[in-house]
Write a structure and sequence with these properties.
single chain, 1088 residues, mainly beta, 21-stranded parallel beta sheet, 17-stranded parallel beta sheet, 13% helix, disordered N terminus
Length: 1088
Amino acid sequence: MKSFSYGGVIMKKKHVITITAALAASMAMSVTAFGAPTDIQGHWAQNTINKWVDKGDISGYPDGTFRPNNMITRAEFVVLVNNAMGYSKSGYAYFSDVPNHYWGKNAIQTGVAAGYISGDGDGTFRPNDPVTRQEAAAMISRILGLKQNDSRAYRYTDSYAISNWAKGVVGAVSEAGIMAGYPDGSFGPNKVLTRAEAVLALDKTMNYKPGDKEEDKEETKKEDMLLTQSKLEDTTVTGDLTISDRLGTKTITLEDVTVKGKLIVDGGGEIILKDCNIKEMVMDQKDTAVKASGKTTVEKTTFKKIGKLTGGDYTDVVVDKELSGSITIDAKVRNLTLDAETDLKLGSDARIKNMEITKNADKATIDFSKAKVEDMVVKDKISIRGSGDIDTMTVYVSDVNTSIRPDTVKTKDGASKPNYIDDNDDWYKPSRYRNVTVDRDYSGGTYRNATVTKSDITAKNMTVRENLYIDSDVKDGSVTLEGMTVYGNVYVKGGGENSVYFKDCKISGHIYAEKTYDKYPVGLKLDNKTAQALKGNLYIRGNGADVMGLESGNGTYLKRIVVETSNPVELTDLQAERVDITAANAAVKIPAPTVVKELYVTDKGNGKIELSGTIGKLQADNAITVKGSGRIDEKSGKVEVTEDVKIGVTSVTLDKTDLTLDVNGTAKLNATVKPDDATTKTVTWKSDNEGVAIVDNSGNVTAKAAGTATITATVDGKSASCKVTVNGQTTTVPVQSVGLNQTTLELIAGKEATLTATVKPDDATNKTVTWSSNNETVATVDNNGKVTAKAAGEAIITAKVGDKQATCNVKVTAADVAVESVTLNQSSLELVAGKEATLTATVKPESATDKTVTWTSDKPEIAAVEGGTVTAKAEGTATITVTTVDGGKTATCKVTVTPKTVPVSSIQVQGAASIYVGDTAKLTATITPDGASNKAVTWDSQNKDIATVDQQGNVKALKAGTATITATAQDGSGISGSFVVTVQQADTTALKAKVTEAQKLWNETAVSTQNGTDVPPTKNWVVQQQKDDLQKAVNTANGVLQQSTLTSQNTVNDAYRDLQTALNAFLNAMKPGTMPNTPVPYSFWDLW
């Protein structure tokens, strides 16, 4: 078949299938006398065939068979389709191989009118050819109007054999669940459609509903797939997934893919696994690298050829074949077995829980590159090179060479301890200086490269000609570098929150903070000598970093910091000349008193800044959000700030810079503040000589006496001034009184308040106020009247002008004690819906001033909380959070709510009340209520000698009588239901009558040995064998009758049929005798 033209959707109408006379030769119309076909027991389509036979839609052959695996022709399949779908309208189409007298011509014309067939492109239909599976798929796809789905067809291992015109329709019927593949993962597009497949496909077609996608469980339970494309997403493969060798060395990506069989890597240079679940992986392509990420797990991995594993979690990795080259493992592995003489390389991210080197690994070499093995068992002579960590090594043989000293060594079977070789020699190329592994406190010396592999050590006064590495094996420990000289870079791959200290170090290159171990950032603490001597930049990658200056305040000065990670970065107690944010979703915290003079967000960077320190200039080429209580002196670009962030003033200008007035003359000065969104735009006006000119809060200047004065407008530290010249004679106006806006003041230690002095008269020549405190250990005051509370006690603040003064009594109380933390008595809680539990919050320290807390639930519909009392509402999980009012400290408890248990209240058992001996009947148990938690029941028979029952409710009749069958709930409620089944003895009436009939005929029929010439015409005769056959059938029937109480109805029926067959043969064989007539002497009475 070369092409199919697709038309509109055909509406389905179910009809009983009536098969034409010609088709009957193939599909067999006669109905057997005793039920289902005899040759489909255990066949995968048994249920569907039986359903059609029971409904009279189709039948088997006269001999009682169905022959499910026989083929069906294209014309026969069209007849089936027309009857199944109710198509009757006749059309017209000329096919050169369908003559007028052809039995199926009308059916083919109807199929053309229905729009699901069009024949071959050469004008033929090939009616007598077997219909192939892809041709049937095309017809069904058109009948249902399915959307073509080429990608679905490529899942089959023989997708290459599917014709191009058929790929879309094969994929469509597969996706719809109409036709599925074979257990080996193939579709078999060119295989002939069998009678069973035709029935099943049409049954599914007649009952198809849009949205059906379930694969036919009778056809296949396992589906293999051959991947010939470079990407596969959101797919579950029930069988094996093979990456085709036709993909060569391409990069293959599997995302959200589950493989329940094997992932066989026959092709691809790099295999990327994102959030995949692989049961077993077979590496059968040389030099292929598998890179796993996200939640990817692989249960078992076997290497048939060398390759590489990176990322992800691998449960079992086995190397059991001797391979040329080496296998690289740079991932987490629970169990690694080296069972062959094959070399291994363990990368810096390799974390092996259990590693076994078997007796088959003789002379293998294992190269460590800062890898870690928790438990290693060595059963053959191997060499271990490089640097890394082995917690425990158990040695079963002597002469094991290792450059790594395990923390614990155990020997077995009389083996000696390993031979330790010096790993400080450079294995890569000759050099004047050797490399050094710093696994203890070190001091002095010149080295090529230095690698710190242990925590809680100090390296002092060392010279490193190339690079210094803080290895990930340091984990969350601490390292102190003091007086170090590094000509290259420093790579920090390990370290905890407060761990890597730089003191008086000289670093010519860069510092790279690129820890990836666990999820916590690394802490870098630098003194100012190190920071000033750093010629390169500080690059922050991986888990992020907390960079802290060791000098008090912000006395540590760094030139440039580059943020290249989306993980948290904090800059504490620093001054940074420049910070660049180049990472997307960056999260940078700049607490007080850190000052960043210039912060630049590149076009590739974005994210958020939590600011309580100061940024001098912020330039953003991409979106950045700044929140907190800090300050930005100047900003430009795509910057979004919250209301609490202070935006600095960049400039203040006055509309006049020189002003001349006469005494008592006035003028207004206007100030312009930039930028427009500056946080503080309130102008503070001040005259340096109020005896000459004064200025109010609105910039109104009043000339008081001849002379000059400078009026200054100040906003946020920026100012502008105007020189005022007053013409006229100078006069002096004395001060008459001084007043304060407050005469008493209460403050908490550490808080501030401002007093305002009022000098009278308003035109007093000298209004300069002098402020003082009589007890500066309690409270101080500056020249502007700002009072700062220092410690608990009392002080008097005095404002004095000339000989006039005013005072304010200040009372200082101790500062509030801030909340430091809050905890809950439970971190997780399990409740049944409707139940309650109480959580208790503990606020620290005990002396905290405000210990008030609030309670919230992220899912109140599942678990609500009020005052710490948790009420379970519905099934699910919710998080309860307690938050302190002071400081916003939080603690959480995960609540899991399980549903209420609904018990069974009643059980009703239904089914056939009467069955014959030997028969089986199915009982069903209806559970009330419908929402009962556990609806499982246990079946039992109270009369097991009469009938038994299995745990599926199938009752087997053993002998005549009655049996009570019970179904008891398994939920512990004790509820049960019962049903009485009456077992009847088989009905032998017809069989007895047939025996009597046969016996009578046997008795009345003579046996002839001379072809009837020895039997008179008045009697019938048969040969002796015929009579013996009938007698044998009678005896068999009598045997059944003698066991009738234990015999099934089927057995009685079979005996009746066999006897009837023998009787019919006997009757057909009977003939009248042909003996010549012999005169009979007359008697007296004849003559009478």
